[in-house]
Specification:
The protein is an alpha/beta fold. The protein has a single domain, classed as TIM Barrel, CATH 3.20.20.70. Helix content is 30%, strand content 16%. It is built from eleven helices and twelve strands. Strand 3, helix 3 and strand 4 form a beta-alpha-beta unit. Helix 1 packs across helix 9 and helix 3 packs parallel to helix 5. The protein is globular. Bound molecules: S-adenosylmethionine (SAM) and iron/sulfur cluster (2 copies).
Length: 335
């Protein structure tokens, strides 16, 4: 049974954040001044167990979810993630199971994840220039480590791989053409993401944003590209293909061209709060129901009550006032 929200948008995608921890401190996501040694991360007993996550996922799939993406924080820092993948893969009706990672721990885990049933993977990589990349991840991890992870994932067949690059003005925008060129012809798809005002700690300002059309212009000047139709309704990235037929790129324009009208995504936090928008201020507590011994029917009824009244369209109504709200952090609920 498919659930529709108050704007007739179906529930189709579920993003599951398995941890709020990360081994990177990307300046646009987990700035060190806020996420320092004293930061209070969730304790183990606060996190949903893999069994609890899989149970919720089954209920969500029975109510229209077709695609699940695992994210974080950094999902590969949570122990035995492949055990969760096995449980999710076994859910009848789930069409697509994927994961977003910073790639630093991928080399060691790619084979296990593939064998567990993961189909595809997205790896974040903001620049091929070591100085730029290290200034962005802020923990000194070199580009070669992430490229090694991408290679390992491709070797076990977790492909085509998507490469996510957040573009921040004056930080890495001068390196995006190189990034596109490197993966051109590889079969992997680089997706350039406008720097977003997620959370409340990354000091976002409009003048840090390089818009999608500026990104397209920069790439087109050196590597000619032309627009392509979306694969399906609600696809987040605008697609562009190389005129010489050597592949495509995507551009995610949450700031300059919002896509709330087609947004079919729900997000589950590591402690079981459901957010109906990436820019949500408040979640809905599913863990309380799980741990109070509620039945699947009772949990489904709660899901239905949450989704049916959903009215979110943050990116369409973004303003000076909304930017300053105390929104949930990206590192908490994932991209
Ligand atoms: N740690 C994993 C990773 O980096 O791929 C998964 C979680 S991360 C929060 C998911 C995605 O969100 C990454 O591709 C990251 O670049 C993106 N992201 C984080 N903060 C962002 C921001 N302020 N604007 C745009 N994208 C952002
Ligand atoms: Fe970690 Fe991903 Fe956020 Fe970077 S973007 S700090 S890798 S969660
Ligand atoms: Fe969906 Fe919220 Fe993003 Fe709009 S702002 S596309 S409703 S997550």
């Amino acid at each position: 049974m498919t659930l529709f929200d108050s704007r007739r948008r179906p529930l189709r995608d579920l993003r599951i954040s398995v941890t709020d921890r990360c081994n990177f401190r990307c300046t646009y996501c987990m700035p060190k001044e806020i996420f320092g040694p004293d930061h209070a991360f969730l304790q183990r007993e606060e996190l949903l167990s893999y069994e609890e996550i899989a149970r919720l996922a089954r209920i969500f799939v029975a109510h229209g979810v077709e695609k699940i993406r695992l994210t974080g924080g950094e999902p590969l820092v949570r122990r035995d993630l492949d055990h969760l993948v096995v449980q999710l893969r076994a859910i009848p009706g789930l069409k697509d199971l994927t994961l977003t990672t910073n790639g630093s721990l991928l080399k060691a885990q790619a084979r296990g994840l593939k064998d567990a049933g993961l189909e595809r993977i997205t790896v974040s990589l903001d620049s091929l220039d070591d100085a730029v990349f290290q200034s962005m991840n802020d923990v000194g991890v070199p580009v070669a480590v992430v490229l090694g992870g991408i290679e390992a994932a491709a070797a076990v067949g977790l492909s085509p791989i998507k490469i996510n690059a957040v573009v921040k003005k004056g930080v890495n925008d001068h390196t995006i053409v190189d990034l596109a060129r490197h993966f051109k012809g590889s079969g992997h798809i680089v997706r350039f993401i406008e720097f977003m005002d997620v959370g409340a700690t990354n000091g976002w300002r409009m003048d840090h944003v390089v818009t999608g059309s500026e990104i397209v212009e920069m790439i087109n000047a050196e590597l000619p590209i032309e627009p392509v139709e979306a694969n399906y309704r609600g696809e987040v990235a605008r697609r562009w293909r190389y005129a010489d037929g050597t592949g495509e790129i995507g551009v995610i324009t949450s700031i300059s061209e919002p896509f709330c009208g087609d947004c079919t995504r729900a997000r589950l936090s590591p402690e079981g709060e459901l957010y109906t928008c990436l820019f949500g201020v408040r979640g809905h507590d599913f863990r309380a129901l799980l741990r109070a011994g509620k039945s699947d029917e009772e949990i489904a009824a709660f899901l239905s009550s949450v989704w049916r009244v959903r009215d979110d369209r943050y990116s369409e109504i973004r303003s000076e006032d909304t930017v300053g709200l105390r929104k949930v952090e990206m590192s908490h609920i994932g991209g």
